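STRUCTURE REQUEST FORM
Protein name: SDR family oxidoreductase
Source organism: Qipengyuania polymorpha
Requested output: structure tokens
Priority: standard
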Amino acid sequence: MSTRKAIFVTGGASGIGRAIALYFAGRGWFVGIGDIDEAGMRETLSLMGEGNGFQYKFDVREREEWDEALAAFAEASDGRIDVLANNAGIPLGGALEENSVAEIERCLDINLKGVLFGAQAAYPWLKQSAPGSCLLNTASAAGIYGTPGASVYSATKFGVRGITESLDGEWWDDGIKVRSLCPSFIDTPLLDHNTNARSNEGIRQRVKDAGLEITPVLEVAQAAWDAVHGDKLHTTVGKTAKSLAFGARWLPGKVRKQTRASARPLGK
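Status: completed
Returned output:
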């Protein structure tokens, strides 16, 4: 087995996934990226530099494709997978009654089932490279306290936090770390999407109108590095996430009132 550490990042064609991939590649790691966007993955690889990366097109919703993707990456990395960054995810906003069945199922499948399938598929590889290997799940500030106008998305990110806590206990004896990132609004292409199919309002504009900050994506990559190498179970990223985590723990009544006051759903 190679002595060079290896990380596989889903959603690596852009945004947070790309930033994590570049950050780890810049520190000597061999990096694999998985996504459905082949052109985006090629761009990420070109930014890494020759010999630093590997790409594999697959759908995180398909359990069998997870096995194929990780096996292919392990072959490229000389049999080593130290970290799986379970990062692939999609936004969904708007009032619940506006969300279609197809939108709800797609968000649940990618953001929640995809994380579970990734953890399940990665387990034998992470156990082989333990101690010190890590499952790193991308959750969200929306998984700290439910966000009005994003009930489905919030549900998935609460689920990711729960998966992280469960597997932190389940895999402890195997020497595998399990961690989550809880970012607030991060400056990635996802902010330029509409909140849902019935809305013409972009997420970025909605965030600006609400007076919330947009955090540089590099801060998430740095937090990912620290999470993999540290002992903190959940890592908040960005002012909004940090304030929400503090308030939810120590001032829950205040957070509840603020949430109700800001309850104009995304997309209305």
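Reviewer notes: The chain has a mean pLDDT of 89. The longest strand covers residues 176-183.
Form closed.
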